[in-house]
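Sequence and structure are no longer studied apart. To make this concrete, we show below a single chain and its fold as tokens.
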Amino acid sequence: MSGISQSEFAKFLDPYSLNATIAIAVSGGADSMALILLMHEWAQAHNIKVIGLTVDHQLRIESTAEATQVHNWLQQRDIEHHTLVWHHTTVTSALQKKAREARYQLLKDWCRTHQVNTLMTAHHLEDQWETFMMRLSKGSGLKGLRCIQSCIREDDLEIIRPLLSINRDCLKKSLERFSGDFVQDPSNLNTQFERIRWRQLLPTLAEQGLTPENIGLTIERFQTTDDYIQQQVQLAWESCVDLSLSSSDSTLSSSDLFRGSAKINLKPFKELHPEIAYRILTKLLLEIGGHPYPLPYQSLKRLYHKIITPDFIGTTGGGCYLKKIKGGWIEIHLEQREMKTKPFI
């Protein structure tokens, strides 16, 4: 297997409009080192600047030295580089999840502070496979099984993952083309982490046809189907949801729509396919309730069936209070919880 040539890599970037400074998350592993060297090669030919960003999680005693090593490697190639430090107290649970959330927050904050509108990460085909298997084992639905997206936009920042169809071995070969070094992270062998346990199962499952390539095709079809469903959600939203209580703008994609309440028109809502209704309800609960994660599927399903019954009056869910009002509408607003305090004596 050979690495990625300059012309081949350029084709992976064709779907994206890249015309300004690009920040690249660089852990120091072979995947991210390959990405930044490929991007640097491409950027020099297009008069674009790339900047490497390394997050020092400070979870291992070697992490600071590794970040310094990455800095030196990139500096030798005239690539600007910055280390971002995660300042935290001791992490005792959900280590990978908390580290991932902190990493993305630090990267996004740096980009916004420095007016950089494009952030790239080196997620690849095996990362997709691992994510799919982890989510499948937990009963994820279509939206979860579309896994890692190649491009997402968060307000003014675009996060791009151009290597999702490339496998790990190909990236290592690409790094060899640049005679590049990389950091060996011992946590990649730690079976305490679920992702590593799935990684070690890959050879056995691949023998039964569950290869990253085959799962990648499934994910592609899921993504196409999910995009279609989301189009139908947009159409249904316009007929079912009234945001006049909080905003005059009813565009589904806006993050600033909700100011504490909204209404659902029950008659058309009950006629929707449940999957469409679930998504509308989830969107409202997330935005109004302010929780970072949606209701578990079974809880969402129970809530949906409760509010469409003829004798429904009111209930709570997702940090919201839902109640039936005149005209056949359900009003949703932020749940007000009373604070119980002891009287002063």
About this structure: The first strand starts at residue 22 and ends at 25. Residues 212-240 form the longest helix (29 residues).
